Amino acid sequence: MSAIAAREGLASAGSANALELRGVSRLFGALAALSDITLSVKPGERRAVLGSNGAGKTTLFNCITGDFSPSTGIIRFFGEDVTAFPPQERIRRGLRRTYQISSLFAGLSVLDNVYLACRGVSRNRFSLLRPRRDDALIHAAEGLVDAVHLSAVKDRLVGELAYGQQRQLEIALALSGAPRFILFDEPAAGLSPTERRDLVHILTSLPGHIGYIIIEHDMDVALRVVESVTMMHNGRIFKEGRPEEIESDPEVQELYLGGAHG
Q1: What is the pLDDT of residues 61-81, one digit of tens each?
Q2: Which chain regions cross the lipid bilayer (predicted)?
Q3: In order of start, what are the domains of the chain with their CATH numbers?
Q4: Is 19 left (phi over 0), alpha (psi -120 to 50) or beta?
C-alpha cells in the first residue's frame, strides 16, 4: 500500500466517528479532573454522560469545545484532529454547546436572539447592512424558534420569558448554522415537570443527522432521549451501555441512585 493510500485509509477510518477522544486527561495542578478518557460517538448518535457532581462531566465538555486544552490526549471531530483548535474553529466545523448558566440578550426579542446566532455563524456575520424582511437568515431563525416551541412568544423580550422558555431558546441558539453535533449541559435543570416533558419532545424531534451528548442529573429525562450512556466517576469512565442496561445495573443504582430506581 502506498503512503497516500495509507493516509486516505486512516482518514476514512477516523471519519467514521463524529467525535473521538483518545487518552484525554485534564490536570489542574495535582488534581486530575479527567483521566485517560477514551470515547467514540457516531454521527447522529445521541448519548448521555452521567455521574455525580465532581465526576468530570463539565470538564469533559470544556475539553471537547476548546474552553480547556487537554493535558494529554487527542480529540477528533468528524475525523479531523481539533485538539489544538480554539472554540471558534470548532464552532465553524459544526460543533455547538449549551451551558448550565443562561447567556442570552435579555433586552432583545426571542427572534432577534436566534437571528443573531444564525448571523454569527454565517459568511456575512461582519456585514453592517440591516437585514431585509426576506432575509434567508430571518426565515431560518423563525424555523428554529418554531422547532423549540417558542413561536407564540417570538416577539417578546427574552428578559420577560419564564426560565423554562429561556432554556428552550438556548437550544434554538445551539441549532443555528446547521450544526453537526451538540453538547447539552443540563438542559432540564430548574424546569417544571411540564417543561421537562416539552424538553424531551424537542430533543427527540431534532433532525436525525444531528448527534448530541447530554449531561443531565434527571435520569428520567436523560434516559428517554438517548440511545447510549457513559457513566463517569472521579474523572474516569466507569461504565457504558444502553439506557436500559445502565438503569438496571446494580453498581450504577448503588453508586448514583442510592438503590433501586423505579
Answers
A1: 999 999 999 999 999 999 999
A2: none
A3: 45-67+86-257 (3.40.50.300)
A4: beta
